[in-house]
Structure formats: C-alpha cells, structure tokens
C-alpha cells in the first residue's frame, strides 16, 4: 500500500473529538478490564473507554442476550411495542428511585437529556432549564446549551446558539471560598435560590444536574446540598432531573448516583452503563405524574433507533449482571481506588486534590506554591503537562481519561477491576507523574 493509500485509509473514518495533532489508539480486542491495540500492545482500560463499559469487555451473559434477540427479531420500530423493550422498562422501574415509574427510550445520553428537557418544558409550560457551570450534558445543539463546559459549548455555538438555559455555580470550594462541607452546602444552596429568584421561578421548568460530577471533575456535593436542592424544587415548583448518564448502573456505588444522596428526582436520564456499552441505548425515567401527562397529551417526537431491541436485550442482561454482586462490590473498588490514589497524592506535591465516589475519581493538578492550575484551557494556550501525564500512562499500558477542564485526570475503571489491576494502574500513574513533573 502506498503512503497516499495509507493516508486515505486513515481518513475514511473520522473519530469523535478529532484532533489533527494526535493519533488515537486503534483498539481491536478486549477481555475483562484489558484491551489490545492493532499492534498487540496491552492496556488496562481505567477510563472504561468513555466511562461506560462498567462490566468490562467480555461479559458473556450480555453477548448471549444480544445474540438471542438477533435470532428472534433484530429491530422493531420505536413507534411500536416489543416484549424486550417492555421487559427492560419493567426492570428499570424496579431499580430506579421510588419516585420514578416509566421510561422513554432513546439512543444516546445527549438525546436522553434533550428528551427530558422537552418533556419538562411541556409539562411545566415554562422555557428555562438551570444547569451548573462546569458540567457536561452532551454534544448536540440542545445539550450544548445545557453544558457548562466552555470548550464544548463554544465549539457548538460558534455559528448558532440555542436558548432556554441558565447557569448556576457548582458546589465546589473554589466557587464559594470555603472548604467546610456544611458551610459549602449552605452557601451553594443559597446561591441556587438566588439564581431561581433572579430568573423568576415561573419561567423555570427544571434543574438538570449530575448527582456526582462526571468528566468535569468527579466531585460529590457536600452533605446536605442535594436535600436543599430538592427542597428548593418543591418550594418553587421546579422539576429535578438527575443526569445519570455516567453515574448510573453502579458507577458511584448504588444503582444511581441520586440514591447515594438519598433524594427522589422527578426524572433521571440514563445511557452508557445501562448496556455496559455493548449496544447504544439511553432513556429518560419519569414519575407517574409526568408519565400520565405524556400518555394523555402524546409526544410527537421519536428516533429510529430509540429503544433498539438489541440494546434492550443487552440492558436486561446487564442489569441482571449488576445485581449479581457487581454493585455490591463497588464499595471494595472504592476503598482500593481511594487508598491507592491517596498514596499517589502523598508522593507528589503537584497533586492538588483527589476526589470521587464509587468507581469515579478525579486527580487534579496545581502548582503547590500558588495552588493555581499548571494549565487551564479556558485561558491558556500553552502546553498542558496533565496531557503529558495521560500520554505517559498510555506508554505504561494504562488508559485514563482527560477531565473538563484539562487540569485533571479521570480514573474510572470497569466495576469488575481487581485490587491487583488497581495497583498496576496506580503504579503507572505514580511513575507517569514523576516522569512529567520531577
């Protein structure tokens, strides 16, 4: 093959988050927590690809369920019913928070968030949805407006902007100048109420928020914060939508992230882990009142592949696998990750913070003298040493995720990762930080 032919072959498929200055891995095989590239090199997948392969890469029960569904009927119109779709909806009704009962299926997390917002606006007869700065809700035009990550939003809105979204600050210490959890919860709650009152409560359909931040930094809210959010939603007649695209299906220690906070949302959006990413599938689970509203008024919007039978078969099998000890084991995973990450922190002054819950963690870097980021893509154009850490980890056979903003790394392995695999990954991270900063 000529060089030109090789270049043309590489150009046929354009990958997402395309960067002309980087060359992505070409992954060909996977087993458990391990993947291999086309050169036969082995990697521990400690980003679960895109925080979604919660069961790893070789769960035979999920694969068999998809094969069996393909043998029956591989596709049924999303405008029709089919038993496997109904069965998955029933399973979801049993594991989602008690406040929820029905599920409207879609294809991706972005589309699930758009559907949830559309339903909320119709149900509330109000235009505005509040979301947090430093959040990520998707890469479509609608979810780009909802996303608080400026890199994503600026890219999407370069030529056309969408309306109907307003922002509030996340409950993080830097936003409210306090590291005291009780004080942080109070100040962040008071700020949210100010935003609600400033926007006008009658204009607000919903608050859409991640219960534990995903790629924006894996930060849990301080205790009591979400109780305050729920109370504000009740007081001002605002729907609470939990974006569980990353935090669902055991990722944070329970079926859904809101269950680790002990609150009842009006809707949740789900994707990624629902099938352990073996098939594209997403959805919106809603309360009985909202379901009744949709059933009465109708919902004249749909997607060709929403609730695809192959995805629903994978989802049913995945839920059974999660229930068979995987979610119960996340507490051990959390203990192992937290312990080893704290060891990494003690070895490197440039590690400013480690935070997370369950199997979703972030490592943030900053200058130890000034406590400012070495690189912030929102304001800096220079090289990012945190990106270099990711590259060093990859050279050592470990794949980790880049956070938003890029002064942090996301550690999010499949939930089946063993302590031995955790140790290997954290040793590689430790050595990679040394290689970049020492």
Task: State the gist of this model.
The chain is an alpha/beta fold. It is built from 16 helices and 15 strands. The strands form three sheets. A seven-stranded mixed beta sheet has the order 4-10-9-8-7-5-6, with helices on both faces. The chain has a four-stranded mixed beta sheet with strand order 1-2-3-13.
Q: What keywords describe this structure?
A:
438 residues; alpha/beta; Aspartate Aminotransferase, domain 1; Aspartate Aminotransferase, domain 2; 7-stranded mixed β-sheet; 4-stranded mixed β-sheet; 16 helices; 15 strands; globular; disordered N terminus
Explain the overall architecture.
The chain has helices at residues 3-12, 48-51, 60-72, 83-95, 109-124, 141-146, 150-156, 173-176, 181-199, 225-236, 257-261, 288-297, 309-326, 330-347, 385-395, 419-437; strands at residues 27-31, 34-37, 42-45, 102-106, 128-132, 165-168, 204-209, 239-243, 267-270, 282-286, 351-357, 360-365, 398-399, 401-402, 408-411. With 438 residues, the protein is α/β, with parallel strands linked by helices. The chain folds into 2 domains: 17-46 and 329-437, Aspartate Aminotransferase, domain 1, CATH 3.90.1150; 60-324, Type I PLP-dependent aspartate aminotransferase-like (Major domain) (Aspartate Aminotransferase, domain 2, 3-Layer(aba) Sandwich), CATH 3.40.640.10. A hairpin with a 2-residue loop joins strand 11 and strand 12 (360-365). The two termini are 43 Å apart.
């Amino acid at each position: 093959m000529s060089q030109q032919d090789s270049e043309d072959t590489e150009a046929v498929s354009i990958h997402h988050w395309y960067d002309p200055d980087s060359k992505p891995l070409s992954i060909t095989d996977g087993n458990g927590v391990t993947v291999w590239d086309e050169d036969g090199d082995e990697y521990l997948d400690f980003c679960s690809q895109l925080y979604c392969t919660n069961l790893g890469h070789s769960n035979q029960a999920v694969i068999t369920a998809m094969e069996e569904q393909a043998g029956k009927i591989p596709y049924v119109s999303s405008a029709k019913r089919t038993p496997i779709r109904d069965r998955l909806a029933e399973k979801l009704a049993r594991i989602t928070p008690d406040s929820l009962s029905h599920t409207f299926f879609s294809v991706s997390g972005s589309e699930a968030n758009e559907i949830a917002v559309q339903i909320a606006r119709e149900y509330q007869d109000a235009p505005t949805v509040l979301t947090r700065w430093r959040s990520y809700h998707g890469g479509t035009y609608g979810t780009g407006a909802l996303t608080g990550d400026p890199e994503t939003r600026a890219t999407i809105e370069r030529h056309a902007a969408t309306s109907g979204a307003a922002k509030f600050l996340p409950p993080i210490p830097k936003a409210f100048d306090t590291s005291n959890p009780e004080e942080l919860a109070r100040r962040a709650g008071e700020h949210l109420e100010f935003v609600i009152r400033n926007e006008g409560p009658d204009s607000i359909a919903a608050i859409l928020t991640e219960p534990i931040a995903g790629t924006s930094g894996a930060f849990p809210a301080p205790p009591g914060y979400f109780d305050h959010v729920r109370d504000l939603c009740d007081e001002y007649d605002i729907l609470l939508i939990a974006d569980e695209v990353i935090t669902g299906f055991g990722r944070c220690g329970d079926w859904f992230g809101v269950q680790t906070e002990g609150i009842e949302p009006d809707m949740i959006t789900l994707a990624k882990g629902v099938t352990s990413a073996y098939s594209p599938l997403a959805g919106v689970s809603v309360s009985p009142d909202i379901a009744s509203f949709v059933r009465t008024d109708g919902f004249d919007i749909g997607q060709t592949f929403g609730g695809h039978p192959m995805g629903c078969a994978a989802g049913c099998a995945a839920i059974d696998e999660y229930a068979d000890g995987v979610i119960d084991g996340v507490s051990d995973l959390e203990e192992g990750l937290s312990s080893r990450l704290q060891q990494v922190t003690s070895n490197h002054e440039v590690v400013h913070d480690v935070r997370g819950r369950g199997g979703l963690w972030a490592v943030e870097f900053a200058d130890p003298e000034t406590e400012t980021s070495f690189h912030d893509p929102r304001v800096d154009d220079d090289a990012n040493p945190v990106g270099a850490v990711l590259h060093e980890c990859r050279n050592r056979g470990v794949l980790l995720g880049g956070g938003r903003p890029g002064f942090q790394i996301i550690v999010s392995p499949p939930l089946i990762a063993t302590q031995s695999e955790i140790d290997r990954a954290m040793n590689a991270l430790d050595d990679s930080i040394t290689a970049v900063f020492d």
